[in-house]
Amino acid sequence: MGPMTDRALDEKSCRVRYWGLIPAAGTGERFGGTRPKQYQHVAGVPLLQFSLNCLAKAPEIAGITVGLASTDRWFESMCQAPAKLISTFIGGSSRAETVLRGLELLCEHGRDEDWVLVHDAVRPCLKLSDVSSLINAVGDGTTGGILAVPVRDTLKNSDAHGYAIKTLEREGIWRALTPQMFRLRDLITALQACSSTLSEISDEASAIEQAGQPVKLVAGREDNIKVTVAEDLDLVSAILANGCS
After folding, report:
1. Among 17, 52, 157, 184, which one is most buried in terms of CB atoms within 10 A?
2. CA 109 to mean position of chain CA atoms
């Protein structure tokens, strides 16, 4: 199924809703520690809670679902479910599989033309202003989009021994962030088309791109960072201390 046409949008606009989906089924093996990184604390609050809270505060969001690992034993004890939480569900072995399962669950609540905002569980510094910017920039269009920031650092290509061999052109290069926002049916169809390679799909936009659909880049904040290693927690703590509303 291709992007919605302008006529279809006009007919459906009064019924279109926005949903939040947070894939949080990762085990965090690379991060280390006794629990997955989405449950690491900053100021006594798990990272996942910050992501939940921001989406829940967005007035446009009708409901949220969260994908958890089958072995998850932290969500109920460590996180406070916002009123907009529809349910949790068991995720898959990859991010893309978890997202696909969440989309299929949302089909029970939404319509094909509804929008879904997929947000990383470990991007706790998302601001409401960025959520609104994404919805305003994409919601009236016929295609989806993502928050992103232009790459400003000089980029180097290295050899197998770790030596720089080439300086890369950075013009037109963006760093993808989340949320990533697409029509419910468009994203399901795109991910299903990648069923044999879901583990290789690094984000929702890449699946949409493979489906031949355009993805709008919406400038977001540089501080919407993803926690990857333990050292990132100090930076997140400093960012959150300045507020994330």
Report:
1. 52
2. 20
